[in-house]
Amino acid sequence: MNEVKALIEKYWDKVREHRWYLHQHPEPSHQEKNTAAYIAKVLREIGLEPTENVGGYGVVALIEGKGPGKCVGLRADFDALEITECTGIPYASQNPGIMHACGHDTHTAMLLGAAYVLNELRDRFDGCVKLVFQPAEEDAADSGAKAMIADGVLENPHVDVMYGQHVWPALPTGKIGVRNGAMMASSDRFFITVRGKSSHASRPEGGIDAIMIASYIVAALQSIVARNVGPLDSAVITIGKITGGTRYNIIADEVKMEGTCRNLNPEVRKSMPERITKIARGIAEGMGGSAEVEYRMCYSPTVNDPEQFKLMCGVITETLGEDTLVIPENSALGGEDFSYYCEKIPCCFNWLGCHEEGTPEYPIHNGHFLVQEEAMPLGMETMVGAALKFLAQ
Fold it and tell me: I need a surface site. Which of 24, 64, 88, 354 has the fewest CB within 10 A?
């Protein structure tokens, strides 16, 4: 691992340049054409032969060792979000209204860094490392992981285990979190269409106000978590988007809402479509309108394999020191389509602390979110170390 550290230092300037470029040129889910082309170009410069357009804009490359053996997958996502950047950094987004506010630029740059290191060490291990650069992680309804799996990313050669990570501002730089079992929650998506009747704003008695109906629905949905979910279970229901109305003096006849539901308990998750539908329809009908609900089961919980959890803990403590490892008491209710890989093969997912202590802590999916770059070498050491340790077994 001393040699790994030296190689990370050797390639650090390149990795940081990749991160800056990716941060400046973000692309949202299913539109990552230029990002994918950039990743493939870098991989070819390293000396690898990437396969492009896997499950959309996915890019895959194989680093083969000196002899036959197992295959370990390393995954990074690279889509961005429709958020305006507010960081003021020199390498801020050049695409208006689009930002790497979830740190996927960092994930990709770190995996490119791991590619540099592992390619130099390929005569030191048996088996192979499959580098999986994945698009569309942010689209729960049309997941990039699901599409890449359908396109055969886990075969030819078959991937025996896979490791992934996510930058995590709730942890300071220098800490890495990993849990045995569930790391992240299921992530489902739902759509509610409320229909009323338009009328002049001065004659509310002649219409049915879809905006008022929608307001009551938003408030009532929180009663599901408060009164239909046990206090020892975890659930979140959030309405993240509402559109409705055409003019300030017209009572709206239609409102569309989009939301997400997060759970760790499978039984609680199963109950959500019916509860949300009953509340939306009941309130709408009681106020003279109607409501239609579409509920999509998307990501399952991201669950770490017990053996790979042990391996990852060993890598972190042996490589970076016992003080680096954090075993969080609770899972996060954020969702991750890395869960699709976990359903197919043994996997382990970790949280990479990236917050500079003493500075304001901004969460992911916030226009001020910024990764402290000093966290990136630790992320690369962890991924490279896990791959080498698994292949050595």
Answer: 88
Domain boundaries, the chain: 2-185+300-392, 190-298
Determine the distance from the C-alpha atom of residue 66 to the mean position of all C-alpha atoms in its chain, rounded to a whole number. 34
Active site residues: 79, 137
Beta-carbon neighbour count of residue 388 at 10 Å? 21
What's the rounded Cα separation, in Å, for the pair 166 and 20? 18
Residue 333: the pLDDT is 94
pLDDT number for residue 95: 98
Evaluate whether 144 touches 134 at the Cβ level (below 8 Å). yes
Residue type at 41 in one-letter notation: K
Question: Residue 17 contacts by C-beta under 8 Å, 6 or more apart in sequence?
Answer: none
CA distances from 74 to 77, 182, 382, 387 (A): 10, 19, 11, 8
* The pLDDT of residue 1 is above 90: no
Alpha carbons 142 and 339: distance in angstroms, whole number: 14
Q: Give the mean pLDDT of 342-346.
A: 98
Residues in contact with 38: Cβ distance below 8 Å, sequence separation at least 6, in sequence order? 21, 22, 25
The answer regarding whether domain 2-185+300-392 maps to CATH 3.40.630.10 reads yes
pLDDT in tens, 121-155: 999 999 999 999 999 999 988 999 999 999 999 99
Classify 190-298 by CATH class.
alpha beta
DSSP assignment of 8-32:
HHHHHHHHHHHHHHHHHS--BTT--
pLDDT in tens, 197-214: 999 999 999 999 999 999
Residue whose C-alpha is closest to residue 299's, from 349, 252, 255, 250: 349
